[in-house]
Amino acid sequence: MSASTPSSAVVVPGTAGPVHRGEEVLTPEALAFLAELHRRFAPRRAELLALRQRRRAEIARTGTLDFLPETAHIRDDPQWRVAPAPAALDDRRVEITGPTDRKMTINALNSGARIWLADFEDASAPTWENVIGGQVNLIDAYERRIDFTSPEGKSYALGDAESLATVVVRPRGWHLDERHLAVDGEQMPGALVDFGLYFFHNARRLIDLGKGPYFYLPKTESHLEARLWNEVFVFAQDHVGIPQGTVRATVLIETITAAYEMEEILYELRDHASGLNAGRWDYLFSIVKNFRDGGERFVLPDRNAVTMTAPFMRAYTELLVRSCHKRGAHAIGGMAAFIPSRRDPEVNKVAFEKVKADKDREAADGFDGSWVAHPDLVPIARASFDAVLGDRPNQKDRLREDVHVTAAELIDVASLDARPTFEGLRNAVQVGIRYIEAWLRGMGAVAIFNLMEDAATAEISRSQIWQWINAGVVFEGGEKATPELVRQVAADELVAIRTEVGEDAFATGKWTEAYELLLRTGLDTDYVDFLTLPAYRELRD
């Protein structure tokens, strides 16, 4: 590094305006820490992103996946375990998810859930305001100086400290850059920005509160990526002088490649691991992405037809519970995304019954907890797990040694007795446009048709459009999935949205941009790896 090269990360001039109280987060010491993270770990991150491409090419060539022979010794060794869970993470029966805006921070902490997944990833559009403002809000929450008053005059404040949820922060995935911060002229990985700022400002503060810096790790595709995270944790703890093992991480198994490496991922993070989580939309998106040229047997039906009881999804979730409990880790179930209606109790009744059935199944299968998107769902999920757990904090003693999942079962998409439908296509277009429009306005968690949707929804929506066109799917009425059909459906939807929201809201929104981005990522011959990559280029601060 030359004498003229800044030793710290720098805010890139002209990329964004100032964020209120941003100077409290972007301190010289914090920026120096970010620079250390970047210089030490960004080169390996780039190598691992290139490795993803090589692995995808191999899947395209072979049309299959298998457990890794070179790591069989890790899977076959019965002795190793992850570190025991800290007290704050021992009981995780209900977890609520959401972005780190001020109102959500208060509501999530007060929700009655044991854990709040404080999201800088799929439930947050990475505007500079959201990235830095979210850090301010978390610091304020720990210092108990956070409140919020809505435009309607409703006030929000934190409850008693003992009743608040434990925070587990989800940084962005390895693939996303942060354009507002640079080190040595390179954009920083968003993952290191989110992790670094939160860890630097809160690690000691959390220890003083009897907790620690806890994280959810998204979009992990291999145990080598988990190893990189572990190296980041080791360095960060040494850097600020806190004991090794203070950081804890739960890994989202939301890619098909990671499903074949669950035990290896836990092994790489074993001193810092606290569990694995079973996703849904991102997992299906990953199947489409990796097997997009695999032919008819990998064509998914409408996304709402692929429930967690589908044979290949059940293989995945049961293997996750088995892998976690075998190694002493928590197994966390999937999302209940329903948003209760204030006007239609019958809609709520049907939806609550579905949520209860879903959470009952997860608890009976051996999961130690599960996700909800709304505070009204916390009591429903808690009741399902209370019925199984009672006073126990978890059921990690339930080893599920009856589970034996083969490599083929994890990708047996053809075992699902369902086909794509025209209404499924229409729904993908409807939800895709609505979500992308909100994301381009800086919103990552969006209520659409009584469901809380995040970026994973848009990913599976545009991916299914792409897959159905390229597979030549013919719908039940004889219509063939073609670019022309999708353009017509999208054009009709744009007209319907204009009528629904009104001319003024349509003109001030990002509807045309969203329509164009959905079509570009759904129709282009070259499949873009992540929708958020081109979307980020259009996101304005």
Question: What does this entry look like structurally?
Answer:
With 541 residues, this protein is an alpha/beta fold. It has 19 helices and 15 strands. It has helices at 28-62, 72-76, 102-109, 128-142, 190-208, 223-240, 256-259, 262-268, 281-290, 311-326, 345-365, 378-389, 407-410, 422-440, 455-470, 483-501, 503-508, 511-523, 532-538, and strands at residues 10-11, 94-99, 115-119, 147-149, 155-157, 166-170, 177-183, 186-189, 214-217, 248-253, 273-278, 330-336, 369-372, 446-448, 451-453. An eight-stranded parallel β-sheet has the order 6-3-2-13-12-11-10-9. Strands 1-7-8 form a three-stranded antiparallel β-sheet. A hairpin with a 2-residue loop joins strand 14 and strand 15. The longest helix has 35 residues, at 28-62. The radius of gyration is 22 Å and the shape is globular. It starts with 9 loop residues before the first strand and ends with a helix.
Q: How would the blueprint of this fold be written?
A:
Layout: E1 10-11, H1 28-62, H2 72-76, E2 94-99, H3 102-109, E3 115-119, H4 128-142, E4 147-149, E5 155-157, E6 166-170, E7 177-183, E8 186-189, H5 190-208, E9 214-217, H6 223-240, E10 248-253, H7 256-259, H8 262-268, E11 273-278, H9 281-290, H10 311-326, E12 330-336, H11 345-365, E13 369-372, H12 378-389, H13 407-410, H14 422-440, E14 446-448, E15 451-453, H15 455-470, H16 483-501, H17 503-508, H18 511-523, H19 532-538
Parallel strand pairs: 2-3, 2-13, 3-6, 9-10, 10-11, 11-12, 12-13
Antiparallel strand pairs: 1-7, 4-5, 7-8, 14-15
